[in-house]
Design brief:
Elements lengths: L1 E5 L9 H15 L3 E8 L9 E8 L2 H4 L13 H12 L11 H10 L7 E6 L3 H12 L5 E6 L14 H18 L2 E4 L2 H11 L4 E3 L6 H4 L11 E7 L10 H16 L3 E7 L15 E3 L5 H9 L3 E5 L10 H7 L4 E5 L5 H9 L4 E5 L5 H10 L7 H7 L5 H6 L4
Parallel strand pairs: 1-2, 1-4, 2-3, 4-5, 5-6, 6-7, 8-9, 8-11, 9-10, 11-12, 12-13
């Protein structure tokens, strides 16, 4: 088959948004399909399996590697930058990657005579889906259009991609064109699918969950601590009003205090972008914030932990890909949430109570979390258990679902 993939993100930029489709594209190429991948222009890229077609002005990978920018000591220019950014955010459309729209349209126009079997557009930027809609209009060649959502668009009130006061109707109009114009719409969980059905009515949509390369994440040489020092690790980003660390760190502080009374030192290390949340102010002798780190290093930090800490999203229907990445390490997981835990963690705690502990902020007790930590020294999954438990999240399994 001949397949066109439209995704602004491709390694080294974009992390989870890029690695998913880079991996799937390579699997399809190895199976003999001809893959063309339209993406943003960046440095340090090479792929011998697929046709990598870079579109638009060159983009620095650092922008999407979540590196913290140090403010100048004297603060000059900071106020102007903040004001400019706030004004700019009120007017761009459809989202912060609006500048990719025209270059993408020009490139798609040049491909209008190509005979693709499938065109796949992927959005954390809605520009990709607008590209799919545009390509459907300009080409007379028949193809199946698959529109996949890494992030929601017009229903994303908790993290609006643009000024909803100005563009809500425009967002709805074009997104309705996309979801009913595509042959298939893909979401990563059923909650997002149901939210879209509620907003737009029923259309052809399926759930294809997050994928993971188990061999890359499995911690096969890690010996879990069973002594008096326990290492808790969180790897991931924070987002205001969606994934904030305050409640989790409050309970981890209580956990650290209880550990000291019991003669157990509990250390908590945090890696990832803060996105405007002052994580440093929450730190202590036992809680350290290290900021963003490269993906390979982040995976190694996860694998070196004794117990992984997960903080679930609030007010957001999307689920992060790191949930299955955490599980793929085989390490125990301490999961903090409010209301109901993620479906995958809820199901697995019932089957593996020594491996996953779901800590609800209002109802769970710190002493129970400490008991979990104390008993999970031998709770690491074997590699075979990881493979069996996460089979439906394996990249090869996931890659087969798009053409069903």
């Amino acid at each position: 088959m001949k397949i066109l993939i439209v995704n602004y993100f491709y390694p080294p930029i974009g992390r989870a948004h890029s690695f998913r489709w880079c991996k799937i594209a390579n699997i399809w190429a190895e199976q003999g399909h001809e893959i063309t991948f339209l993406t943003a222009r960046a440095e340090s890229r090479r792929n011998n399996n697929i046709i990598l077609s870079e579109v638009g002005a060159r983009v620095s990978a650092d922008r999407f590697d979540n590196k913290q920018k140090n403010s100048s000591p004297n603060g000059k220019g900071i106020s102007f930058k903040i004001i400019s950014k706030n004004i700019y955010r009120k007017f761009f459309w459809p989202d912060g990657l609006w500048y990719w729209l025209l270059p993408l349209f020009f490139r798609l126009f040049s491909l209008r005579s190509e005979k693709y079997d499938y065109v796949i557009t992927y959005s954390p930027t809605f520009v990709s889906h607008l590209g799919g809609l545009f390509y459907k209009i300009i080409t007379k060649e028949p193809f199946d259009w698959i529109a996949e959502y890494g992030d929601p668009f017009s229903i994303s009130d908790s993290m609006p991609p643009n000024n909803f006061n100005l563009y809500r109707r425009l967002n709805y109009y074009f997104e309705k064109k996309v979801v009913f114009g595509a042959n298939k719409v893909v979401f990563t969980n059923k909650e997002t699918k149901q939210a879209y059905f509620k907003a737009f009515g029923t259309f052809n949509a399926v759930v294809i969950p997050h994928a993971v390369d188990i061999e890359s994440f499995y911690s096969n040489d890690k010996k879990l601590s069973s002594g008096n020092i326990v290492s808790l690790v969180y790897v991931g980003s924070f987002h205001k009003q969606i994934r904030e660390p305050y409640n989790a760190i409050k309970y981890i502080n209580d956990l650290i205090g209880l550990g000291k009374k019991k003669g157990v030192t509990i250390n908590f290390d945090i890696y990832g972008p803060s996105n405007g949340i002052d994580v440093h102010s929450l730190c202590s002798d036992n809680i350290k914030y290290h900021g963003p780190i490269p993906r390979d290093e982040a995976i190694q930090k996860m694998k070196n932990a004794d117990i992984l800490v997960n903080i679930e999203n609030e007010n957001c229907v999307m689920s992060p890909s790191k949930e299955v990445e955490y599980l793929a390490t085989g390490l125990p997981i301490l999961n903090y949430y409010e209301g109901e835990p993620s479906g995958i963690f809820q199901d697995l705690q019932m089957k593996y109570p020594d491996h996953i502990y779901n800590h609800e902020y209002k109802s769970s007790k710190v002493k129970d979390a400490f008991i979990f930590i104390n008993r999970c020294g031998e709770a690491r999954w074997s590699f075979d258990t990881c493979i069996l438990t996460l089979k439906k999240y394996d990249f090869h399994e996931i890659s087969n679902k798009y053409f069903i």
